[in-house]
Hints:
CATH class: Alpha Beta
Oligomer: single chain
Structural class: alpha/beta
Bound molecules: S-adenosyl-L-homocysteine
Distance between the termini: 24 Å
Largest sheet: 7 strands, mixed
Radius of gyration: 18 Å
CATH topology: Rossmann fold
Order of helices and strands: HHHHEHEHEEHEHHEHHE
Amino acid sequence: MTTTDFTPDTAVIPGPATPYQDDIARYWDQEARPVNLRLGDVDGLYHHHYGIGDVDRDALAGPASGHERRLVAELHRLESAQADLLLDHLGHVPRESLLVDAGCGRGGSMMMAHQRFGCRVEGLTLSAKQAEFANRRAEETEAAAFVHARVRNMLDMPFETGSARASWNNESSMYVDLDDLMGEHARILEVGGRYVTITGCWNPAYGQPSKWVSQINAHFECNIHSRREYLRAMADNRLVPRAIIDLTEATLPYWELRATSALVTGIEEAFLSSYKDGSFQYVLIAADRV
Ligand code: SAH
């Protein structure tokens, strides 16, 4: 596959397939929260996901006037660390591979994947605004021959069966039925390929979704699945987990820091409370396509 094989089909290929997906497309078309844009401005990698790892207190120290700027840079560093961990689990990725970012947002993870592996990365989002944004960033960084986003439904991906070396959902699997999603990843992945998700999920050991989980669902118009549902959907679709990492502890410092920022969105309490009461977990699951 050469790098000129991209189809410039953002406008002609269908995106949303259901009224719900239309709502989600509208949500992300309108999304312009400073907490996402200001963090992306730090180095041009725009994420719509959360962070992991310890806060670097030295990086926050300094005169009061620059505090918010240092805090934004630190939150952004933790969000990029999250994407780095996801990429660590993609396994061996030769340069000629195709990688697929399902629910790619503004494309931060795609850019990082291309920078790391040098290969082609295709992203899908329901939002035309996000796809345009990601493609503009790719052009600005001269990665446009390799990194490309388009408006498509990830339950109906525009890739040949067995064509992808690896694929992922970075905080985008709570918008779809998991059985449909895992079936579609299994279809596009080559045998021996890798699937990775990082997601919040409700904890079956808690019982049912807590009130905090319900609040998060209402805030993002999504439907958080349980850990059990992820593992069941993978098992039913030839995706065999090789790593399941509970990142809940690792994401708490990010949320505690974020809650002190002027950029709070109002959902911080729900995340902190549900992570602490055990009803909600932040997990990475990496699976082999067998
Ligand atoms: N993975 C990105 C963005 C996460 S935000 C990041 O880490 O920054 C959630 C994303 O899921 C949005 O881009 C939204 O458009 C996308 N999404 C939700 N449902 C989708 C669907 N059915 N098909 C394609 N993308 C979808």
